[in-house]
Each structure stands twice: as C-alpha cells, then as structure tokens.
Amino acid sequence: MKRYYLQLALRGLLRHRTQTLLIIVTMAIGIASCMTAYTILNALMADPIAHGSRHLYLVSMDSQPLPKPGDHSAVSSSPTLLKLRDAQALVDARKAVRQTYLAIADVNASTITGGAHDSSVLTWLTSAQAIAMFGIPLRHGRTWTAAESVARAPVAIIDEHLSRKLFGVADGVGRSLRLNGHVFRVIGVMANWRYRRQFFDLEQLYFLPGTQFPIFLPTQSALAASIGPIHPGICEHSSHAYAFGSSKVGDCYWLETWVQLDTPKQVVAYRRYLLDYAMQQHAAGRFQRAPKVALHGMNAWVAQNNGVPSSAPINLWLSLAFLALCMVNVTGLLLARFLRGSHEVAVRRTLGATRAGVFAQHLIEAGGVSLLGGALAVPLTLFGLWLVRQQQIGYASVAHLNLPMFIALFAVSVGVGLIVGVLPAWRASTLSPALQVKTN
Amino acid sequence: MQPMLKTFRRHRLMPTLVVMQIALATAILCNALSLLQQRLAPLLVHDGVAANQVILISHIYNTTGKGWSGAQIQTGYAELRAIPGVIAVSAGSPLPMVSGWYDSDSIFSSNGKHKANAAIYVGSNLVNALGLKLVAGRNFSPSELVDATMQNEGGLNTDAPVILTHAIAQRLFPDTNPLGQQVRVGSKHPSYHTVVGVVGHLLRNDLNSANQPAVGNVLLVPGRFIDFPAIEYAVRADPNALPAVLKSIPVALRRAFPSNDATAHSRPRIATFEAARAAFFHGRRAAVWLLSSVTLVVLIVTLIGIMGLTGFWVQQRTRQIGVRRALGARRVDILRYFQTENLLLATAGIALGCAAAIGINVWLMAHYAVPRLPIVYLPIGAVALWLLGQLAVLGPALRAARVPPTTAMRAA
C-alpha cells in the first residue's frame, strides 16, 4: 500500500512539473536562508574556546592610579589590566588551579638567515601555563619552565603552520628563528590553534574571528629582546601612553591575568586571596584606589565585551519570517494542486479507498516535495555561506556548515514538509466523494 | 460586495491563505525596507572630498615608546609636499574613511541652547588637503594653528577656532549665522572655539546606529601635531599625477621617518580616498545587497503564491462565472469582480501585516539596537502589496473574463 502511495505521489509530482519545481524552489530558498542565518548566529555565539571556558576567569583588580586633579585627559580605569609586577605576583603565587597572563605583540619573524620569509606575525606574550589552560594542543616539544622565564631565555613556541613556512617541517623543535632581529629557539610546536571568539584584550584590540597567533613567547624574554605589546594600555607617565610596540612598559597597565578555578569554593577562595593582595598593596601605598577585586567568567566577559553583532539575530528573525511566508505559499500551492485532483480522489474514495489512505497519500506527496526542497537547500545554504565569506565583514570567516547544522537542516525541511502538507492533505481527504463524482 | 463576502464565508481556506501571505509579506517588507534604508543612507550622503585627487596615509606608528616630534611630522609634511603633482598636504588625526580611532563628542552652542554629537578631525591643512568646499566664512589662517599634543587632547583644550560642516552648523545655529558664533566641545573642556568657516559636506569616521542621523556632523580643528605616536596624512594631488604620487609616497615616508628595527613592521596603509571609502563601506554594501535581495525575493514569492492560489480559485468558479455571464454580466464586470475581491483580501492582509510590522519592530527595539520603524514604510509596504496583488490577479481575472456563457449550460 505504501508503495502504491509513493507511486501516486511521484505521478502527482511529475504531472505538474513547473508547479512542482516552483514549490521545491520556494521551500529550498526559505530553508536555505534560515540555515545560513542560523549557522552564522550559532558560530558567533559559540564558546570562546573549543576546550571549554566554564572554569576560566579574568582577574579584575583596581590597581591604577587616581587621576591627577585638573587632568582632563585621564582615561577611566580598566581594572582588568595589570602591571607586569602584579600579574607576575599572581602567577607566581599559584593560588589557582592554573594561571597565566597575556598581551599581544606584533613581531617580524624570519629564519636565522632572514630573507625569504619575513613577515609580521601576531604573538602572545604570556606565561608557561597558557598552553595547558586554554587547551592548546602541543604537537612537539614542551613549554618553557619558570626558570627559563626568569632567566629571560630566548625560547619560543610556534605553530605548525609557521614551522612549515620557516623550516619546511612541521616539527621545528630545536631550530632557531629571528624575531625583530633577535634570535629565539623553538622549544615547542603547537597545532594551528584558533579561538572561536576573541576573549582576550577585548577592551583594547579587536581581532577578526579566525585570526591566528602563531607565536607564544615568555613575556620577560620578549621584553628583553625589545618586543613589546601592540597596545601598552595605560601608563603612569603619559609620555608613554600610546607607545605602540614599545618594550619599556614597566609603569604601564597592559597584561590580562586569567585563572582556572574548577569549583565554586575555589572561586570564593581566590577572590579572598585577590582582595588580600589588593589590601596589602593598598596598605603599602602601591595601589591608590580602594581595594576592589572581581573575577569575570570568560563567557560572561565575552558576551559583555564582544557581543554578537545585532545584525546576526535580526537576519535570523528576518529569514524565519521569510520561511513562514514560503510555508504559507507552499501550503496554498499544494492545496490548489490537491483540490484540482479532487475528482480523482472522489473516484478512489468511491472505489473503497479510506479517508486515512487518501490523507496518507497526499501527505507523502507533500513530504516528498519538501524533502526535495530540503535537498536543494543544501547547495543553496553552502552558496549562501560562501557569499557571506566573500564579504570583508567581521564575522565572514566563521560561516561554515558543520555536521550538526547539516542534520538540523534536514530535520527542519522534513518538519516543514509535514506542516505544510497536513492542511492540504486533510482538506483533500475530507472531500465528499458523492458530491464530487456528481459534479464532474 | 455582498456576494463576495458570502463567498469568503463559504470558502474560508483560500482567502485565509492569501490574507496570511500578504500579511507576512507586508510585515517582512516594512522591516526589511527600514533596515535597508538605515544601511544605505550613509552611502548616499555626499562625502565632500574632492573626487580622484586625495590619498590617505594612515597610521605611521612610532614604536620606540615616544611620539613623533613636531619636527619629524613637519619633515614628513615637507617630503610629501615636494612630490611633483601634489597640491596640498595635511597631517591629520583622525581622518575620514580610515577608522584608526575615533574622536567624537557633544558640541554645544555657546548659548547652551543646542547640542549635537560630532566627529572631531584635527589637522594642519585639512580643508585644502581633502579638497573641501567652503560654503561660508574662510579657511584657517596659518597663524591660527595651535600645538596639538596628547596632553591638550589634540588642541581641544585651547581656544583654537573651528570650521563646522553645514550639517552640524544647522543643528547648532538653526536661526543665526554660525560664523563668529562660539562652540564648546564636550562637557569637560572649558574652552570656547569661534566658528570661522562652514564646509559643505564631510563624513564622520565613527558610524554606528546611534549617530547615523548625524553622519555629516564634523568639526575641524587647526592643529600642528607634536609628540604624537601615530600620525596620518591626507595628500591632494593633480588627478593626472595621482598614480605617480601613489608610487612616490613610500619613498618620501622612508626618508621622513627612518626605520629602526621596531618601525620596520608597521607599514602605513596608503590608499586613494575612493579605495579607502570602498573598504570603509564594504560591510554596509554587503548588507544593502542582502536586504535588497530579501525584499525582491519576498515580492516574487508572494506574487507566485497569490497567482497560484487565485488561479485555482478562479478556475474552481468557472461555472458560476458562466452563469453570471449567461445572466447578462459583461466581461468587464467579471474582471472587476475578481480585482475587487483581490483588493479586499489584500487590504485585510495589509492591515494585519502593518500591525505585525509594528509589533515586530517594537520587539526588535526591545532586544537589539534597532531604531523605531518610520511610519512612512507602512504606506510604502501597503501600496507595494496592493499593486502586487492586482498584478497577481490580472492573469486569472482576464482568463475568467474570457469564460463564455455557454460554459454554464454545458457543465449543467
């Protein structure tokens, strides 16, 4: 019986080819526009790092000086930026499960002989636990030790891509490279890691999604080689303010400190420790402002400072409304088609087909059309995402279709097909056979 | 009218579907058009800069931890000015279309009555270097140049005169001649600035949804930069010499700003104003394309939908049409009948759709940075869908009008 219905449905589809095509295309455009918008929104709302950000917190400590009286140019305090001295103290204290500080530099990387590969590379100035804390896969070698950091050893971790570019091999451990003219030795090679959403330096610098940071350097070693942060934050001597790339950042607030705290108890204890630290420094006269500390969860911090551009959800709502329009449209077209064939239905009903049978037959026909629409929506969605990637807009590079999205797309198209099919199929099945046979 | 309503009551499904389609289309159309207009508006505003003459050099960074001295910035100016074909040069910060950073603030008229938000451009000779057209007053005189340092906020903490764009001049001094009037920048700067000139157009470099209506609000300050860590230049050249000037600029910059190992990697961006403008507006243009295609597709889908439904519904009533024709109805009566029917359905749909459009807009405003839907879009959407409905019904209605009276008898 099912096969018979399928045959009938197929014959129905083939009978009105233009109309069938119209219905399929309408469905496909509606579904594809929704999936494109949803894929983009989903990528934009993703967890900042693949490894999971649930237990990561940004330290906030009001350590910046009070504005001088009459100084109008004073920027308001950003308590998430610390001096190297304080960031180092927090990292050295090892009161959290893991802790690290970081800032971004822009360095010129080349092979030891210079020449061919001379390019500007974004670099993390950080401390040893960053690799483990942010879940960055280390492919070869190791991270630096505390002793190397203290000794300002010129060591670096680079990613596989840069290793291939500079040395021609993925495992560049033991090789040397030149950063801003200074020789550094590669001690570790990490995977080509990307964060999903930027979580660091949000108050100062904005990087496009998918930006890679192929070099990690111990902060002290970098400073010793005159490599400084792109943006030195706020400096006590205003002559140093806006000192781009300078390594003379002793009196600047430029490092973010991130900690990993696995349980609520640890969070409470760490906040207590931070407050104690701030109070000590305040008592010693180093911190001028009243001690004030906070821990920002990574997700909340990112949501607050790197919010999803409002055009993304608006586009999704717009495309949902559009899908609704397409669905009403297809419902109408299907209804028109089923009722046109009403004399045929009447004949089948008089010959003994049940109401449920007629309903099923039409639902199968509607479902078939929407499945075809869903299938056509796949290339259309891929095309839509490709179009988005061609634009030089902020979030273009996140526009990729992944497997869960793909499955969701099919679920949506089948669901849509059933919804649009129910009404016309029901209407066709409730036709009174006697009346139809008589009128025709 | 009476028989039409009766028909609607008897066959509810078809008219309901048409009304729903029109309602959805109206709601989408009004909101999409409003979003489209928002993205499009700044693209259509005259930027005021001389066409095909201006080159922008953005961000020559000093990475040694100190700023560029006044002498170095002046050397840069002289080197650029000496390139053959160059008409005018100005150091500036920030510059339009290259959004390194923004400087914008509320500008108050001296009587405190009016205020408007504006972008502030500081530079030594911006009017000439950008080729701006003065519509009133004069350009700054060389003696009016003030020292612009990080400490005095690029000259804002001085009593330097200012030039306004026509847009902000009208906002601040709606009833008086702005020339000779005074303005104050922000609430924390105590100094007053005298307006010496008004330029026709110039765009701000910090466009966002909040300041979009004030896209042409700019205030120019005559400043000579001293100890600035990042400097930008605007260069105006003879249109014929532009390609050659573009090539000569890097050489001139290398002479003026000798590179040490730290500056080597922060190469400044050199682009014609047109290229910078295209890059600046890229995202907006993409959004404009997206929204216009949405609008178009919505219209097409609705057209096809109404056509399909009406076509069927008319066909279903062939016998009735035959009867009416047999009883004396003219072809034009049949045509008018279906057109009126469509008009009624469209009106119902449009009424529903307008309500939905406002509802959607209110909801969007509550959740996202979306401005209020201008009421003018409702009649625009309504007219568009009325026309669309009539267009969709025309074919089926004409076909119906051609039904011969004999059809009625034959079917019976």
Largest sheet of chain A: 6 strands, mixed, barrel
How far the N terminus sits from the C terminus of chain A, by CA atoms, comes to: 27 Å
Residue share in helix of chain A: 40-55%
Mean of pLDDT of chain B:
86
The ordered string of helix (H) and strand (E) elements of chain A is: HHEHEEHEHEHEEEHEEEHEHHHHHH
Tertiary shape of chain B = elongated
Features of this protein?
heterodimer; A: 440 residues; alpha+beta; 2 domains; 12 strands; B: 412 residues; six-stranded mixed β-barrel; 12 helices
Describe the structure.
With 440 residues, chain A is α+β, with helices and mostly antiparallel strands. Chain A is built from 14 helices and 12 strands. In chain A, α12 packs antiparallel against α13 (403-429). Chain A is elongated and about 100 Å long. Chain A starts with a helix and ends with a helix. Chain B is an alpha+beta fold and 412 residues long. Chain B is 49% helix and 18% strand. A 6-stranded mixed beta barrel of chain B has the order 3-4-10-7-9-8. In chain B, α2 (13-44) packs across α11 and α10 (331-367) packs antiparallel against α11. Chain B starts with a helix and ends with a helix.
Topology of helices and strands:
The complex is a heterodimer of chains A (440) and B (412).
Chain A: H1 2-15, H2 17-44, E1 56-61, H3 84-93, E2 98-111, E3 119-126, H4 130-133, E4 138-141, H5 146-150, E5 155-159, H6 160-167, E6 176-179, E7 182-190, E8 215-218, H7 219-224, E9 234-235, E10 252-253, E11 256-260, H8 264-283, E12 293-297, H9 298-305, H10 311-340, H11 342-350, H12 355-390, H13 403-429, H14 433-439
Parallel strand pairs in A: 3-8, 5-7
Antiparallel strand pairs in A: 1-11, 1-12, 2-3, 2-6, 2-11, 4-7, 5-8, 6-7, 9-10
Helix pairs in contact in A: 1-12, 2-10, 2-12, 2-13, 10-13, 11-14, 12-13
Chain B: H1 2-10, H2 13-44, E1 54-61, H3 70-81, E2 86-93, E3 104-109, E4 115-123, H4 126-130, E5 134-137, E6 146-148, E7 162-165, H5 166-172, E8 182-185, E9 192-199, E10 218-225, E11 230-237, H6 242-256, E12 269-272, H7 273-280, H8 282-316, H9 318-326, H10 331-367, H11 377-401, H12 406-411
Parallel strand pairs in B: 4-10, 6-10, 7-9
Antiparallel strand pairs in B: 1-11, 1-12, 2-4, 2-11, 3-4, 3-8, 5-9, 7-10, 8-9
Helix pairs in contact in B: 2-8, 2-10, 2-11, 3-6, 8-11, 10-11
